[in-house]
């Protein structure tokens, strides 16, 4: 691109020297060079030059060019004025001044009425149209009322939906991939916010880490480090690791202990959000013999817990007959006990020292004093929302690597 600043050309120097040009008019792109060596100027320059250096122009010529310019200027002005006043509406000639103003500045939407009246062609249809107009107003009011009662509640529930903190102890074995994926996929379907706290013993396994990474849900992968080899109930320590974590970080939500192998419905997780302090519900199970289904959990009158389903004699000694997967509670009980007038002091934890079958009741006794502080869900506690079947295949390890040593035989059908 050419630079605007120019050095003086040898020619310019020459013209300056021989006086053909004035010292105050350096050569510019607007200046055209004629073969004869004479220069011609743009109109502006010509005007400026005319003002300062009149010796090249007579007074008469100068006045003539000014008059011509002024005349052109006035002509353009009048032409513009006329164009500006002309309406762009083709019906301008038919409209009176008042109509013009109305059509240009009014925001009324009258065309529908006019066109429908014309097409209907009789009074009856006009009356019908008026009626419809009135009906539309009534429907609008109805919609507002409906949103107030039901839809708005749903919207607000979603916005302020309580976080679910789902705690799952897990360990490496062949069927773990199936269990963890099944539970993870279900949690993906639950409305957020959901936090899945998955706890392993001693170290985080590659398999669990990879599954959680690919699941697409919010999770925390924790490790429970316990030197004691004589652990009676390993799930207990892993759940306690999660409880410590929730307490330390003051995680806010509803805590639910979800073993990886249980069967859960989506409804369960949605219903849990109703809980304020401590909620419980009946869980479906198989009896020890595995040949009949039994229930464990509350008997309710509405949301009030009035009794318990229990089937085995030894379990009559328990205060509360609830399965580990049959209750959820507000996490702030762990880190803000005063707010809930908590019955015991000290951290709320699962106990490794209790007899089998007493784990749940001893834990719940730290959270509530009696049934009056419980909420039975769903209303009447009349549906089974999850199952605890005890069908675990404990001993089977993950196969060593997934790569096949040989390609599988391929059969290609010939035509
Ligand atoms: C029984 C009881 O019903 C539970 O109340 C008790 O908490 C549980 O045992 C336990 O040992 O923790 P059950 O279904 O027989 O439940 O136990 P599992 O399904 O074998 O394990 C429960 C949870 O702990 C599962 O999520 C499992 O993955 C996990 N777990 C189990 C471990 O993380 N490590 C283990 O060595 C065993
Ligand atoms: Mn189990």
From TrEMBL:
The family line of this record is: Belongs to the glycosyltransferase 43 family.
Organism listed in the record? Salvia splendens
Q: Which UniProt keywords apply?
A: Cell wall biogenesis/degradation, Glycoprotein, Glycosyltransferase, Golgi apparatus, Manganese, Membrane, Metal-binding, Signal-anchor, Transferase, Transmembrane, Transmembrane helix
Task: Please provide, alphabetically and separated by semicolons, the GO molecular function terms listed in this UniProt record.
Answer: galactosylgalactosylxylosylprotein 3-beta-glucuronosyltransferase activity; metal ion binding; xylosyltransferase activity
What's the protein called, per UniProt?
Glycosyltransferases
Could you tell me where this protein is found in the cell?
Golgi apparatus membrane
Q: What is its main location?
A: Golgi
The feature of type site (Interaction with galactose moiety of substrate glycoprotein) is located at 296
